[in-house]
């Protein structure tokens, strides 16, 4: 049996999803468990083991040559550890070693979820055919990843492209990361909702104050809701323009729940980009909605693992065989 298949895990605060995939990123077999996010470290690992055990029961398993893991961050791909913000029991958890042992010593590749989403969009989604791209996930937080020179650029620890914590407002509000005026502090879903509420907008009775509710209000013409999205778009545009000026990306792909606002976000984002991306070599920069949806994390983890299984190991993607 040739090693033309890979296993993939997508680890988040609500679910642990797994799949077997071919080297093109097509998902063939799936398994999923809820994340026991409030449990101890071993109960979370137990859910990972359950997903891997279910995948290993597939008749396709003998063709698996590597395991790719995309995880909520922060991750440390060099150390093989993860510390997902929404899984408090995992701080510096040695996921690469533990998962590697669970899959009998197959090579394991770990990337952050933003980098995984980028790998998926580059292989099969909106960044396909672009050698230089930034992909963003705008939801509860703002994450991202980079493709440079046709290759995923994960960086030494797997976090390169984390645009949410670039400061675009020097004296702006404190961000939970400790800096001020981060893109995430201005553009994440909770911050879009908070800013609208601060400006006097209120959700309909019985409805929560979410970014989606603000988007609906903006579509109905509510000026405070429109202004909150315009401010988020401005922050994203400044961060994207800075990235383009540094790296000559020619497309920014935007996914995550906030991208579901559609033109409420994308129209002011395109306007703001023209204001910030002004030099000749960045004026062709475009933005596009992500195409991979909920499967982006799994597909991206599979694509990252396939690169290793094929022996095309890049310096940025560190694989470790478990002992
Ligand atoms: Zn920050």
UniProtKB/TrEMBL annotation:
<comment type="similarity">
    <text>Belongs to the ROK (NagC/XylR) family.</text>
</comment>
<protein>
    <submittedName>
        <fullName>ROK family protein</fullName>
    </submittedName>
</protein>
<dbReference type="Pfam" id="PF00480">
    <property type="entry name" value="ROK"/>
</dbReference>
<dbReference type="InterPro" id="IPR000600">
    <property type="entry name" value="ROK"/>
</dbReference>
<dbReference type="InterPro" id="IPR043129">
    <property type="entry name" value="ATPase_NBD"/>
</dbReference>
<dbReference type="InterPro" id="IPR049874">
    <property type="entry name" value="ROK_cs"/>
</dbReference>
